[in-house]
Design goal:
The structure is a homodimer. With about 325 residues, chain A is α+β, with helices and mostly antiparallel strands. Chain A is built from 11 helices and 7 strands.
């Protein structure tokens, strides 16, 4: 479990998703000490019926629970065409794409979602955070192009963007976050301290009710269907304080049940290529498709290494010291 | 097929989604005359394997093809826990929620998506429409609350909002649409004529790349996986001009494979209620959950009738005249 979790954290940094990689280690140590994460626990399959299964994560590392869940979904899709697995009693699982990506080696479409018990996103017309940033990931195999890998929080931006803007005392665009009265704020410091993110779209006029709807959809699949906790429940204080009880939802769809694999891959290539070759906006630099920046980052970082901020290196040294582990991180300073 | 299609169009108006109800009839007549819609055609199941199936719509009405597809998905979920069905060679299917809603009577979660061959949405950093408004719908049963019904285009707004603003010569908010150079425009007339919608979120800074990713995801599932056309293909002129070749993707998930139904419904109720009861923004009126405005509208319109604009009544009278059918629409003027 330690190897797998470490590998996924490093893979996440390789892909450039620095917010969800080794930078999470100090937080995971804190959650372990709070009793949320049981590193030696083994997830249990509590229900298993052909195309579906339910996994009790037993408070193991989310990365490990999720890998077990997605492996099960893939095995089911191999046998039955599609496989869907929910997990409860889990923890933060890092980047959602880690698990949708697993389907690609099997020429399947992979789906990965997670909720979280930490309220961060405000319902449209509300002023209290009631939903976590509930990400959605879908990965689809391609031929010559990089595979399509969508991995998006259902909030407009991540908390990380607010902390960076607050640190530099820069204004944020209206629509990212709200002040305590529920009005849009451009003051990064207010936004960072109130932590009231808008759902994708921002306000109602800009379609924020759609991002809000997507976030609730994720809570229905990962919280309610999986039998895990959800952010609004935490608000009601009915959430057990001794565990995070994060829920996940995984799906695998065997492409060949619907179309010959070579035709599917050729058409994914054609679709992605058409989008990337379409005319640029004036002043624009480049049209991407989902996952492309991460594939390019991974290629570069496998060659050149992963840059770690000095502050993070210090934090990791502290984690090693506090846990009595040797600090072996070497590299250019 | 005529009854079913008419019923779904009226149901759509009952739910207040006037853009996708009987108001589409003149367009459907035009598409029939162009050879896209074959009203007497019968969809064919071209592949059928336990949990999955592929339907060739045979250019029948999209509503009919989609109903066949979703019925098949539900039957598969009844037998196997989950069922997924793609359709190609179909037509515009009206409101996406018409089909996800079908799952509710079976205590299942319903999923419905469609693409379209009509480019309307611009990739992030682009200036040409390459994707249709590709909606996503998910419906989940509740207990005492209205069921959760998300039905959202993956664009920021619908074309309809631009035409209304253009008609009244009102400015539109920046972020809804682009001018021909790919820059945001607030001129409704420019926006309506160039028809370059932004993906949900608007520009890159506001998360528009996420809406763009969701729209491409729908094209991968409904266009590529289903073996139908897609908007970027239309752009390349490889799309057969004699049919729309719309693709759909349907899923049904039997709740009871994951959790006891009463617990699931009670938790959906608790989740939705928590969101609706959370504190209001200052100046805000009410917090909704997805589907609630439509359920309330349906209740009201079943009692009071569906208001039809005089212009639409005239259009419907023309359709009746041109097709040699009696015009029997009665009601308060």
């Amino acid at each position: 479990m330690a190897d797998l979790t470490a590998d996924l954290m490093v893979r996440t940094d390789l892909r450039g998703v620095d917010s969800h990689g080794v930078g999470m280690l100090p937080t995971y140590l804190r959650w372990h000490r709070a009793g949320y994460i049981h590193p030696a626990a083994e997830p249990k399959i509590v229900r298993d019926e052909g195309t579906t299964a339910v996994v009790d994560g037993q408070q193991a590392f989310g990365h490990y629970v999720a890998t077990c869940g997605m492996e099960l979904a893939i095995a089911k899709a191999r046998a039955h065409g599609v496989g869907f697995v929910t997990c409860h009693n889990s923890n933060h699982y890092g980047a959602a794409a880690n698990y949708s990506l697993m389907a690609l080696a099997h020429d399947m479409i992979g789906i990965s979602m997670t909720n979280g018990p930490w309220p961060a996103v405000v319902p449209t017309f509300g002023r209290q955070a009631m939903i976590s940033t509930n990400p959605i990931s879908l990965a689809a195999p391609a031929g010559r192009e990089y595979p399509f890998v969508l991995d998006m929080a259902t909030s407009t931006v991540a908390i990380g963007k607010l902390s960076v803007a607050a640190r530099w005392a820069k204004p944020i665009p209206p629509g990212w976050a709200l002040d305590p009265t529920g009005q849009p704020t451009t003051d990064a410091s207010v936004a960072y301290h109130t932590r009231l993110l808008t759902p994708l779209g921002g306000n109602r006029e800009q379609g924020g009710h759609k991002g809000y709807g997507l976030a609730v959809m994720v809570d229905i699949l990962c919280g309610v269907l999986a039998g895990a906790s959800w952010a609004a429940q935490t608000r009601r204080d009915t959430h057990p304080p001794d565990r995070a009880d994060v829920g996940h939802f995984f799906g695998a769809i065997d492409v060949q049940r619907f179309r010959p694999l070579d035709l599917f891959k050729a058409d994914v290539d054609a679709l992605l290529r058409s989008l990337k070759d379409s005319p640029l906006a004036e002043g624009g630099g480049r049209i991407y498709v989902a996952g492309e920046p991460e594939w390019e980052c991974e290629t570069m970082r496998r060659r050149e290494g992963i840059p770690l901020a000095p502050g993070l290196v210090d934090q990791l040294r502290t984690v090693a010291g506090e846990t009595g582990l040797p600090f072996t991180l070497a590299g250019r300073r």
